[in-house]
Amino acid sequence: MCGSYQALDPGCGVIRMLVVDDERAFSDMVSGYFSHFGCEVVSAVSAEEALQAWPTFRPDICVVDNRLPGMSGAKLIKQIRLLDRNVFIVMCTIDRREDALTVLAQDDIDLFFKKPLLFSAFCDALIGAMAHITAGKASRQS
């Protein structure tokens, strides 16, 4: 069972999450779970679609698969880092970590999960990230 997002400070605003994966089952599972706890989640099936949504959505967290149609997830992450150095980025991919990260700097991603993944561990890690994000939002509001 995944942890509880409800334990986070509700006064810090909604967590915005962008899920970029061409595997609908995975993105639907992530979107459904975190939407249930009040996150605003947008899904994209390609890097190009994610970049199109970026200017109006501005997520706190990005979950990115490496194997996408068109531009790879690694190249998308490079583009995201040019737009926002502070967004929390999670890469989830079937690729080995070394293979997926060949074009990325060590600090380009915050978490890495190899698929197939244990969904409860994935959720708990994202909930921990959300706690960190909401704490940052709270300190900026005070």
**C-alpha end-to-end distance:** 34 Å
The level-1 CATH class:
Alpha Beta
Show unreliable segments. 1-12
Strand order of the largest sheet: 2-1-3-4-5
Say what the CATH topology is: Rossmann fold
Average pLDDT rating: 85
Number of helices: 5
Helix content: 40-55%
Radius of gyration computed on alpha carbons = 14 Å
Structural class: alpha/beta
Number of strands: 5
The general outline is globular
- SSE string, helix = H, strand = E? EHEHEHEHEH
Report the portion of residues in β strands: 15-25%
CATH architecture: 3-Layer(aba) Sandwich
Number of domains: 1
CATH superfamily: Response regulator
Give the biggest beta sheet: 5 strands, parallel
Attribute tags:
single chain; 142 residues; alpha/beta; Rossmann fold; five-stranded parallel β-sheet; disordered N terminus
Describe the protein in words.
The protein has 5 helices and 5 strands. 32% of the residues are buried. Helix content is 44%, strand content 17%. By secondary structure, the protein is α/β, with parallel strands linked by helices. The chain has a single domain, classed as Rossmann fold. Strands 2-1-3-4-5 form a 5-stranded parallel sheet, with helices on both faces. It is globular and about 35 Å long.
